[in-house]
Design brief:
CATH topology of the largest domain: Alpha-Beta Plaits
Low-confidence stretches: none
Oligomer: single chain
Helix content: 40-55%
Mean pLDDT: 80
Number of helices: 7
Length: 161
């Protein structure tokens, strides 16, 4: 039985798709019937195409940019409240994760270790006037030290080692 809302598919229509869409597979399956083997063939070709794309995407390592920022703050508690208030703003500007470290001898000596989406976004974030204003109002003392890093090696130990 033909569905009036289903548009006919061609090989080019799904090979040019930029990402997997479940509606496309549903459309292929709705077109399938014992007399319509081309829909099944298209579905199989689509699955093979997806597998190839996924394997290619996995084989290209994504370079994560790490951002290490060191600064001293006037009052850690006040700084932390301001830092937490900018959670969504940082994420919108490319932050993927953040870890906060304090000096063992000085609780107001702060190191931040971020993962950022790209070097371009990280550089733009650090150079932004909005960040400078937020840091000043949060009580950051002096100019921060900022390092842009890429990971070369990571070793994780477990109790089994």
């Amino acid at each position: 039985m033909e569905n009036a809302n289903v548009k006919p598919l061609t090989v080019n229509s799904f090979l040019s798709a930029s990402r997997f869409e479940s509606g496309l597979v549903a459309q292929l399956l709705m077109n399938a019937s014992p007399l319509n083997h081309s829909a099944v063939t298209l579905a199989l070709a689509f699955v093979l195409h997806l597998e190839l794309r996924l394997n290619l995407e996995r084989s290209v390592p994504k370079i994560m940019i790490n951002l290490l920022i060191h600064h001293e703050v006037a009052d850690y508690t006040a700084w932390k409240a301001a830092f937490d208030a900018s959670f969504d703003w940082r994420h919108k500007n490319g932050e993927c994760s953040c870890r906060i470290f304090r000096s063992a001898g000085n609780v107001n000596d702060v190191n931040l270790f971020f993962e950022w989406e790209s070097l371009e976004k990280a550089r733009a974030f650090v150079a932004s006037d909005e960040l400078k204003a937020k840091m000043a109002s949060a009580g950051v003392m002096g100019a921060p030290r900022v390092d842009f890093l890429t990971e070369v090696q990571s070793v994780r130990r477990s109790a089994a080692d």
